[in-house]
């Protein structure tokens, strides 16, 4: 069976829609967790005073929701790519864009593997991955500015994709920073250390 560009585009649009649904499920789970804390007698024990608020998690979920919407927008832009676009500048742009998307996928994979037992270390690793994505975006922009690609033409995809790249990397960075802040706040609230 041959996979067409239309099939691939449809899969990407479906993934973006699924990500939005997952964010909604995550938001509902967080809401249930927050409500459940009020009925859990363990909250009165000294070692269970962490996470007095879940603001950091809410910020991360909000940022991930924005990323899901931006990914859907990016997918639409790529799907509407003009079939007559060719050339070495275009090829270089797409290669650099693919490198950026790979770095952003790494961040997404890391978010999907978050484990509260290792949250502080994972938050630092996520922030390092976000820095890598920022570097790849900067390289994409720098190289693109040295080409003859029509960045200011709204009927062409290049400027739109650069704007989406900026939004996605900023949201990834914000998500990582929010998680790191939440872990730092949690560590401070629980006395600063782990109980081993």
Show the helix and strand layout:
Elements: H1 5-37, H2 55-79, H3 88-112, H4 119-145, H5 157-189
Helix pairs in contact: 1-2, 2-5, 3-4, 3-5, 4-5
Overall description:
Residues 116-143 form a coiled coil. Keywords: Coiled coil. Residues 172-196 are annotated as: Disordered. The chain has 196 residues and is mainly alpha-helical. It has one domain (5-189): Methane Monooxygenase Hydroxylase, Chain G, domain 1, CATH 1.20.58. The protein is built from five helices and no strands. Helix 2 packs antiparallel against helix 5, helix 3 (88-112) runs antiparallel to helix 4 and helix 4 (119-145) packs antiparallel against helix 5. The N and C termini lie far apart (54 Å). The mean pLDDT is 82.
Distance between the termini: 54 Å
Number of domains: 1
Return the string of H and E elements: HHHHH
Strand content: under 5%
Shape: elongated
Task: Specify the structural class.
Answer: mainly alpha
How many alpha or pi helices? Answer: 5
Portion of residues in helices?
Answer: over 70%
CATH topology: Methane Monooxygenase Hydroxylase, Chain G, domain 1
The CATH architecture comes to Up-down Bundle
Low-confidence stretches: none
Mean model confidence by pLDDT: 82
Top-tier CATH class: Mainly Alpha
Instruction: Tell me the Rg in angstroms.
Output: 20 Å
Coiled coil: 116-143
Keywords: Coiled coil
Region (Disordered): 172-196
Task: For the structure shown, list the relevant keywords.
0% strand, mainly alpha, coiled coil, single chain, Methane Monooxygenase Hydroxylase, Chain G, domain 1, 196 residues
